[in-house]
Fold this sequence. Notes:
Elements: E1 7-13, H1 19-25, E2 33-37, E3 42-46, H2 48-57, E4 62-65, H3 66-75, H4 83-93, E5 98-101, H5 107-115, E6 119-122, H6 136-162, E7 164-166, E8 169-172, E9 175-176, H7 179-191, E10 195-196, E11 201-204, E12 225-229, E13 232-233, E14 242-248, H8 253-272, H9 279-292, E15 298-300, E16 303-305, E17 312-314, E18 321-325, E19 337-340, E20 343-346, E21 350-353, E22 356-360, E23 365-367, E24 376-377
Parallel strand pairs: 1-5, 3-4, 5-6, 14-24
Antiparallel strand pairs: 1-2, 2-3, 7-8, 8-9, 10-13, 11-12, 12-14, 15-16, 17-18, 19-22, 20-21, 22-23
Helix pairs in contact: 3-4, 6-7, 8-9
Amino acid sequence: MELEPGSAILIYEASENDSNMFYATGFLAPDKFIYLKTRDREAIFLSDLEIDRARSQAKVREVLPLKRFINRSRERGVESPKIADVLQEIFEEFNVRKLIVPPNFGVKYADLVRERGYKVSFKDEPFFEERRHKTPQEVEFIRNAIKAAQIALDRAIDMISSSRIQGDLLIYDGEPLTSERIKREISITLIEMDYLAKHTIVACGAQSAEPHNRGSGPLKPHQPIVIDLFPKDLNTGYHADMTRTVVRGAASEDVRRMFDAVLLAQERAIDMIKPGVDGKDVHNVVVETFKEMGFETGEVEGKMQGFFHGTGHGIGLDVHEWPRISSSSEILEEGDVVTVEPGLYYPQIGGVRIEDDVLVTESGCEVLSEYPKMLELK
């Protein structure tokens, strides 16, 4: 992002919950702090509680004590300086008159700054456009997250394949195997490797026909089970995002046809990925593949069925980043890491989704995830 004289990037967030702040600073903190970047200077401003840790961990040029600017405000006669008072002191030292802030910057704070004569401009995401082009180190972080995801996925699928079919239940360790049990095992497996699993999906049967249904209750034999996990590395902050669909027992002919169609659509989409290709064209190949194989999309009795989400999205510090592979035009570029996740969903049958993570390389792409794609577990 090019900065003019007198302008600066301003972020006021907790980096533990804000990927832009973490990307800019490399410092993980649970409480809000200030980041400011001008053409010539880059600094963070912290309380005494965090400043020593930040000096050893943050990647910014200057780590400054917040109390210095609080005290300056008090010297001007402000008895109890608020954030706007402190920011004004910072802006004056850094010769700033215009601020560029991310879209989640609080409107309250923006108004307070404007009242003091500063210009505030909101910039849409991607706020740091360079975030979409992953460095070799970032790609390695994502590879490591994928390895962890595959270990957890393997544990989940092993539990399902080891279960015993008893009527309309799967029995594991003498008890009905549930979505909750699998999700718990995934979480335990990942946390032991310092990865966090949030909102993992283990959805069976009709539940699997709703793409974001996390799943609940007993898993059923002979029905599709969608397992979608997107762990975050607790040390680096980077994500993986993978999905497999399995059936314990015998899949119906409809589910087999859906699985074959989804697999073919994914293969065709991945074959297209390279720099300069429009994500819209990749998405359209998936749409056309499903039509070619007889799978229609539309609303039936108030519910969507078929293929009704994007083909993929970027991953990194956020599980959903730029670029998008969807019906909107967006050109793929070298360094993008994207998911490719076609799916088919029919309430009366269930859902099938397969998802892998793909790096856009100089001349094509590399599939980073390697887990097998098998439907039936017998």
